[in-house]
């Protein structure tokens, strides 16, 4: 039986004024995992509105079961206003009091218990309201799954108390460079420059933080410079990425794409060297199309086919 994954958090719609695009980091992750053929339960909440219909369409397109999808009558489906600058930069306005702030604990527990996941994924944005935070805590208390935290800090919604609690709850934590620097400021004696992730001071502070929060592994993504994996048993694995190529469109959701292949590699028994290389390559490829997930779902099999040809691998690391 294929090992299952549960993903908790926001499903929302990015409004670019000229187009509405379904997103939300947890929902991006869930869709990628489903695209790769893994059984996934997405626990989120939407409203009975036009944006909610767009989210449900994506559930259907990726073959995601609606067992974890809650619908709140009169609530607004998660909505983010996106302004695109003349230089191509994006400014996001994350609206308050959205449906994903009202995730019901009892419904969430029923969905998670039915799926019996081996990996449970969560972030921090959907914890901004006490109701959804309580639902997450209830799920974490009853789950024996490996807990994967994508910190995914969003400007204006960074609560150190929530971050501290999330780190305590996690087994594996994934951050980008700027998030790692923020963790250094909060929890470490020094803030080494992450331009050189191979330096001793970065490794020392990362491992001290991992020890303090009892983490089994820390994953740091570095954009075009690749990614770094550190484990509590002393492993230090780096992959320096593949670059972005010449067809760069945008980097929306690249981190979510990386996470999906990282988790796929864990479940399929790849070596960490293979896992990081494949995760970086897939993340880079998503920068070649608009939005976080592909329009053509056949691309997932195009990635899986060469990966499946080498089945004699074993996973290294917790």
Automatic annotation (TrEMBL):
Question: One GO MF term, please?
Answer: kinase activity
Does the record carry Nucleotide-binding as a key word?
yes
* UniProt-listed SUPFAM superfamilies: Ribokinase-like
Going by the UniProt record, its keywords in alphabetical order are: ATP-binding, Kinase, Nucleotide-binding, Transferase
InterPro entries documented for this protein: PfkB_Carbo_kinase (IPR050306), PfkB_dom (IPR011611), Ribokinase-like (IPR029056)
Domain annotation Carbohydrate kinase PfkB: ranges:
16-293
Q: Which Gene3D superfamilies does the UniProt record give?
A: 3.40.1190.20
UniProt lists the family membership as follows:
Belongs to the carbohydrate kinase PfkB family.
- Stated name of the protein: Fructokinase
- Which species is this UniProt entry from? Pseudoduganella buxea
- According to the entry, what is the taxonomic lineage of the organism? Bacteria, Pseudomonadati, Pseudomonadota, Betaproteobacteria, Burkholderiales
Gene behind this protein: scrK
């Amino acid at each position: 039986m294929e090992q299952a994954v549960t993903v908790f958090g926001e499903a929302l719609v990015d409004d670019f004024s000229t187009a509405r695009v379904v997103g939300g980091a947890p929902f991006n992750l869930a869709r990628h995992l489903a695209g790769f053929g893994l059984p996934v339960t997405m626990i989120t909440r939407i409203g009975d509105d036009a944006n909610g219909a767009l989210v449900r369409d994506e559930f259907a397109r990726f073959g995601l079961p609606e067992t974890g999808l809650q619908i709140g009558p009169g609530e607004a489906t998660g909505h983010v206003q996106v302004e695109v600058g003349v230089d191509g930069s994006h400014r996001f306005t994350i609206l308050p009091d959205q449906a994903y702030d009202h995730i019901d604990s009892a419904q969430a527990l029923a969905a998670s218990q039915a799926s019996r996941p081996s990996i449970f994924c969560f972030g921090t944005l959907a914890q901004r309201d006490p109701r959804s935070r309580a639902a997450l805590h209830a799920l974490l208390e009853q789950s024996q799954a490996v807990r994967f935290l994508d910190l995914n800090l969003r400007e204006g919604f960074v609560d150190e108390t929530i971050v501290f609690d999330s780190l305590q709850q996690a087994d594996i934590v994934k951050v980008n460079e700027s998030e790692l620097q923020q963790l250094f400021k909060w929890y470490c004696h020094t803030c080494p420059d992450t331009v050189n992730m191979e330096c001793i001071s970065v490794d020392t502070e990362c491992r001290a933080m991992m020890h303090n929060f009892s983490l089994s592994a820390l994953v740091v993504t570095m954009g075009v410079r690749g990614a770094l994996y550190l484990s509590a048993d002393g492993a230090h694995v780096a992959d320096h990425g593949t670059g972005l190529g010449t067809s760069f469109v945008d980097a929306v959701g690249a981190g979510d794409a990386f996470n999906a292949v990282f988790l796929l590699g864990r479940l399929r028994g790849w070596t960490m060297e293979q896992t990081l290389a494949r995760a970086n390559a897939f993340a880079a490829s998503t920068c070649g199309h608009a939005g976080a997930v592909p329009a053509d779902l056949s691309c997932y099999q195009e990635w899986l086919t060469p990966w499946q040809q080498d089945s004699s691998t074993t996973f290294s690391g917790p």
